[in-house]
Write a structure and sequence with these properties.
- The structure is a homotetramer.
- By secondary structure, chain A is an all-alpha fold.
- The longest helix of chain A is centred in the last third of the chain and has 24 residues.
- Helices cover 71% and strands 0% of the residues of chain A.
- Chains A and B meet through helix 7, helix 8, helix 9 and helix 10 of A and helix 7, helix 8, helix 9 and helix 10 of B.
- Chain B binds a DNA duplex through helix 3 and helix 4.
Chain lengths: 203, 203, 203, 203
DNA sequence: ATCTAATCGAGACGGTACGTCGAGTCTTCCC
DNA sequence: GGGAAGACTCGACGTACCGTCTCGATTAGAT
């Protein structure tokens, strides 16, 4: 991502000679992108539409991002940055329950569409897939695993496979979001938590 | 789907007077579509390519299907029709294990790409979404639930929520397939089975 | 033209064994063709439309005519068959005047569109061109020339070039019809007659 | 015509802010169109072929012209722009003879095909018809009539109808070009001139 | 009274051109 | 040198028409 290189350069105080990047335009582009994806999905969001809504030009977009996917990816990253971190109540089941409730609230809210869009786009574009994993999936897993790790040997079995646990609780949520065969309710989340915990709890 | 209307008409003996639809061409089109999706994904599969590979003309495709998505949907439906049904070994855990192994084999095999493609396409196209559910998700769930139902009160808790169970075991598999953060191995499947069963088993 | 062969065969009483050609359908097809050309021009007249309007099938059309142009050509031939022949008043100028007036009435009438259509089609299709000449241009010229021939040495100069004369009087009429820069009136026709006669008359 | 609006804007110095139209591409497109029409006629000239030969894209063509006909019309206009004007020898018959010889040379030359194509296309498309008249027929007539006007009262009768005269000399030429029943030779042209002049000359 | 061959209406088929739309690039002027 | 405007290439989309074909149903002369 060009942006990363540039950000690093700017942190080091090495500003180029010409006019610096218009940060306002950057924000407007990312916002426009996000809104359009929310409203219409990934494929129906055109770069022309983003440019127009942002009051920017396509050239500006393509100067800073290599393609449409990259814009939307960064938009996602920004949107996701300030997400509620893992709770720490002391109780394993309570931690998980709260975490999942927050997560479901996110998915079923205005932003849910974006995640659907990204999972979709990831199937056709390896780069999107990689970024989606790096920006969204992996960080959340890392934090969540670290939080659960503290319960190991207490509520959690000594030999519990946390990767498996992660998939066991997040997988069904994504599944309902994407397949849409059943609604993604809090009741479902709670019941799921119970089942999985029953299988992983220390006895 | 136009095809349905026509099939019904034929069942009623109302064959229509003109030249009948070329069933061979229909098959070739669906096969070509399937192969191309497997090879290149949903978006990269063009109608021109389908037509050429099927030895058909684009006009024929658009006479019978309203758009590219519809062709691929029907191709999926055909491909999926003859899938392995639910096993019945007498043991709950064995039933689930075998079922999941078969399923994983399907997803990781040649056809897996198709499912990824469809889940992706479904996010951008409500019709694809509905068809995907009706053709793939729901029928499999119905069969699997019926099979598990026989264990209720025996290995399975009296009050077990089968819809929840379905999502608990299929969700993580789809998740790994789609997110791709970890491989979809048999080891994972077996471990997952165990965890979920532990949570749902009658004690 | 297949029709010719067949007509000859029928005149000789050699009817085939199968179902004979449906003459009613033939008439309806030619009529439909004519009406459509009049209404919409040559290019906009589709074979499907002809078939539908005639209550015939495209197969029937293509069984009897090699292509769309041939249908329209024969339609023209039929329409033109019963045209007013050359008048014979005894006076050269009167003969020409009457002949041209009739001709202009034809061109500016409902059928005028057809001639425009054919001249147009002839530019893109040598076969149409040839047929148009053979069916329309040449016969009329032959009759008209024969009629004028009787005036040679009397009102008409001994050395008058009748081919030239033909073009000199018909050319401007077609020109106005096709180019449409000025209306094709009787006044124009009469004036034209006068000018040309002045140039060709015996003095 | 979009081009006209733009040209006016440029004349007013309102150059617009974006990338300007690629005039080279425009020229190449029109040239390609002309060459293809000359080689294959109006109908057989495809937009894809024009685009390929011009090294342009179809999108560019359709950005500036609403359809194929419009491209060819403008191509004709450009081609026709620098045609030989009316000669002025002082002699009426010489003026006409030279003018007609030049005209016949044009029609029977490489460009003749284009005129045939346009007269044809004009019959199916009113817009083509109007443009053909405005761009080709009318300007030539205006110039030619002005040139002949100078002879009025001298070689030319006081009451000569120049519109009639125009049609009387140009009509037969177009007629032979379009109907093709006889070749369009210089001999014919000269003889025609003589006949018409005989009818119009002052005596 | 069948049998046989050609015709008919209906309509699907392969091919080919059309005109449209989106992605990503490039070019101009302005700041 | 960045940015807005907007033209450009490429390539897929879905539509329309041509001329061909394949059905079942008709219609006569031949047997």
């Amino acid at each position: 991502m060009t942006t990363l290189v540039r950000e690093q350069a700017e942190e080091l105080g090495q500003r180029g000679r010409g006019r610096p990047r218009d940060e306002v335009a950057r924000k407007r582009i990312l916002e426009a992108a996000l809104e359009l994806v929310e409203a219409q999905g990934f494929a129906a969001t055109t770069t022309d539409a983003i440019a127009e809504r942002a009051g920017a030009s396509k050239a500006t977009i393509y100067r800073w991002w290599p393609n449409k996917a990259a814009v939307l990816i960064e938009a996602l990253r920004e949107a996701v940055a300030q997400e509620t971190p893992m709770p720490e109540t002391g109780s394993l089941s309570e931690d998980i329950r709260i975490q999942l409730r927050n997560f479901v609230k996110l998915l079923t809210g205005r932003r849910g569409r974006i995640f659907k869009a990204f999972v979709a786009a990831a199937q056709n574009d390896p780069e999107v897939a990689e970024t989606f994993r790096a920006v969204w999936i992996v960080p959340r897993r890392t934090i969540a695993k670290a939080a659960l790790e503290r319960h190991r040997g207490r509520d959690l079995r000594e030999d519990a496979d946390l990767d498996l646990l992660m998939d066991a609780i997040y997988g069904p949520l994504y599944f309902r979001l994407l397949a849409g065969h059943r609604p993604l309710t809090e009741k479902f989340t709670d019941a799921l938590t119970e089942v999985v915990l029953e299988g992983i709890r220390k006895r």
